[in-house]
Specification:
Layout (H helix, E strand, L loop, with lengths): L1 H18 L13 H8 L17 H32 L6 E4 L6 H7 L5 E6 L14 H21 L4 H10 L6 H10 L3 E10 L5 E3 L9 E9 L6 E7 L4 H7 L1 H6 L4 E5 L12 H10 E6 L11 E9 L14 H6 L22 E12 L16 H8 L30
Parallel strand pairs: 1-2, 1-7, 2-6, 7-8
Antiparallel strand pairs: 3-4, 3-5, 5-6, 8-10, 9-10
Helix pairs in contact: 2-7, 3-5
């Protein structure tokens, strides 16, 4: 009798302990990549998915409502207008899209280039892992979804990622890397994901599954195979790699890209990096391998398009934001001059307000002369300061300069936290 009571007590203690075991310890089979993407995007996973059980929880319902509301606004304010512009003005799309400095922004890659078969994207942020959401407890999962929404705030609001903030968020959250964000954008863009595979890049341009544990990889990345509901399978490659001169020449990244032949290119919110010769190799690759190149003014300087390109300006050029004031391009004021540019009714890039945004579509044409570089210089001579003008009127007697001592102040510039490649 005593032994029976002792056994019953042990069983009761075991059941009580089991109730407090985190879900990770009793998790079942992992969900498919497509169901994981849909769940993260606030969309119902397939019937029978191990994630379906969470969709009745209040935290996921709130997550889904937040995503639905944000996406409805984004669709009306941005994506529908982008697709309309593309349908009216962009022709001859290529099978390959090179989107360098992209981070995980498949959202605008798909909006501007919806028919590409292969998307090549690159950024400094690591791809991370395919998240196994079943290993998280319900409180952990609720927190992970909040972190995901937070990391997407800037791209949904302004069309670009606040890269430094994103790097911290993607490295320190419960769900890490660019892969979860890529999956969310694929799901919300109506894609079905068939396969997700992490790879290592070698300096000869070959990629190998991470399971092979290749020696001395030069970069890491992820390949996602997907399709539209009724379309053929397509591929997205995201590379976590340095494309500056110190990184790109030996990484094998451009060797991999070169095997794909020519394609279209897209550059947006790129911190004006290709204005510097520190990024001359990637700049030359895009100029050489692009049949057409769509960019805002933060991409390749306009002087490289003087000959051999047809230029089609969209929107309005008002110069860079104050942080990048030194990158102003006088020729762009002329390219976007009155009557030359097609208006756009959405915002894009650092100048994210609709009436301040610019896009330039450059289409390769060896016979074209977009402008005469000597006629349209990049910089114009500055006018004389008013003090010198007054001095000339005063028989050359200059007014004495008055120097005012000011107390040194530290000024915080929150915009500088957004960009990763600042000198």
């Amino acid at each position: 009798m005593t032994r029976t009571r002792f056994t019953a007590s042990i069983l009761a203690l075991f059941l009580v302990a089991l109730a407090f075991v985190p879900r990770a310890a009793v998790a079942g089979p992992a969900a498919s990549a497509d169901d994981t993407a849909r769940f993260l995007a606030g969309m119902m996973p397939s019937t029978g998915s191990p994630l379906a059980t969470y969709t009745n929880d209040a935290f996921w319902k709130q997550h889904a409502r937040n995503f639905d509301e944000s996406w409805d606004v984004l669709e009306k304010r941005q994506l529908a207008k982008v697709r309309s512009l593309v349908a009216k003005n962009f022709s001859n799309p290529q099978h390959v899209l090179f989107y360098i400095f992209s981070g995980p922004d498949f959202l605008y890659a798909d909006a501007f280039f919806p028919s590409a078969d292969t998307y090549i994207m690159a950024g400094l942020e690591p791809p991370g892992q395919l998240p196994d959401l079943g290993k998280l407890s319900r409180p952990e999962l609720a927190g992970a979804l909040r972190e995901l929404r937070s990391s997407l705030n800037s791209v949904l609001s302004y069309s670009f990622f606040r890269t430094k903030s994103m790097r911290v968020e993607l490295n320190e959250g419960r769900i890490t890397g660019t892969l979860p964000i890529l999956m969310v954008f694929l799901a919300r863009s109506g894609k079905t994901i068939y396969d997700v595979s992490l790879f290592d890049l070698q300096n000869d341009g070959s990629i190998h599954p991470v399971e092979d544990k290749s020696a001395n990889p030069t970069a890491k990345g992820v390949k996602i195979v997907f399709s539209d509901d009724v379309g053929k399978k397509r591929a997205l490659y995201y590379f976590s790699t340095d494309v500056s001169e110190g990184g790109v020449q030996n990484s094998g990244f451009l060797k991999f890209c070169g095997k794909l032949g020519n394609g279209d290119s897209f550059v947006k919110s790129a911190s004006y990096l290709m204005h510097s010769d520190k990024f001359s190799t990637i700049r030359e690759f895009l100029l050489t391998h692009s049949v057409s190149l769509l960019q805002d003014d933060s991409g390749i300087p306009i002087r490289f398009f003087a000959k051999g390109w047809q230029l089609h300006p969209f929107g309005r050029y008002v110069g860079p934001i104050p942080l990048f004031a030194a990158q102003s391009q006088q020729t762009l004021y002329r390219v976007f001059g009155k009557g030359r540019a097609t208006p756009i009714d959405f915002g894009i890039g650092y100048r994210w307000k609709p009436m301040e945004s610019n896009l330039l579509l450059a289409v390769k044409d060896e016979t074209a002369m977009a402008f005469e570089p000597a006629k349209w210089p990049e910089s114009e001579p500055a006018s004389k300061p008013q003090r010198e003008a007054r001095a000339e009127k005063n028989d050359g007697k200059r007014e004495p300069r008055v120097h005012h001592k000011r107390k040194q102040r530290t000024v915080s510039n929150p915009i500088s936290k957004m960009f990763p490649y600042l000198p």
